[in-house]
Design a protein that fits this description.
By secondary structure, the chain is an alpha/beta fold. Helices cover 33% and strands 29% of the residues.
């Protein structure tokens, strides 16, 4: 069953007087419970596709549907509420707030929910435990290694038990050992917790960990 349906999506950007077309009539599905790697050269539309699925960007035409919700036609306020519930997004630069501890960073998405402080604390400890950072609750980002920062960002993405986890270059800034740990964690989230995961990566080794690899080239799916 398809969790994500991209239908006849066209996406273009205006840069000065030039129109840059990223996708032209792109159609594809991502199955529920799948682990997909998106590969392709820079500028092929990988990150744009991730942003469209997350509702961070809208297609010029066509539709993006996630778990039955037509994301591409939602109002900004409906989109914010929907995203908080359904999407866990891990950005390339981690986006951890330096003035907050690992615990506080992971708790951030839960502050938008009706959970009590006690319930939030339980969720945060569980998420940090899953990523192996239960002994780093009170550490600030500057006190964490790159791999630990990435795992904290993943904990923040999974703390609200999202429908879909999206990661942009999750191993791009990591050394080999840290990259292996993060990839092992993603495999575990997919196989053990049945999370649907889509990653954008340039790393062929990272892509090998995924169940399927899709290649984009100039906005077109290469077969």
């Amino acid at each position: 069953m398809a969790l994500v349906e991209v239908r006849n999506v066209t996406k273009s950007f205006q840069r000065d007087t030039q129109v840059i077309e990223v996708f032209d009539n792109l159609t594809l599905d991502f199955a529920e419970g799948s682990f997909t790697a998106l590969m392709g050269p820079s500028g092929s539309g990988k990150s744009t596709l991730l942003n469209l699925i997350a509702g961070l960007d809208k297609p010029t035409s066509g539709t993006v549907t996630v778990a039955g919700a037509v994301v591409s036609s939602m109002t900004p306020s409906a989109l914010a509420t929907w995203r908080a519930r359904h999407i866990g997004f891990v950005f390339q630069s981690y986006n951890l707030l330096p003035v907050l501890t690992a615990f506080q960073n992971v708790e951030l998405p839960l502050l938008l929910t009706r959970l009590s402080k006690k319930e939030r604390g339980e969720r945060v400890r569980l998420a940090l435990g899953v990523v192996g950072l239960d002994d780093r609750l009170d550490h600030y980002p500057r006190q964490l290694s790159g791999g630990q920062e990435q795992r904290a960002a993943i904990a923040r993405a999974i703390v609200s038990d999202p429908t879909l986890i999206l990661l942009d270059e999750p191993t791009g800034q990591l050394d080999k050992k840290s990259a292996e740990e993060v990839l092992g964690l993603l495999r575990r989230l997919n196989t053990e917790f049945r999370k649907t995961i889509i990653i954008v990566t340039h790393d062929a080794h990272a892509a090998e960990k995924a169940g399927q690899v899709l290649h984009l080239d100039k906005g077109v799916l290469a077969t």
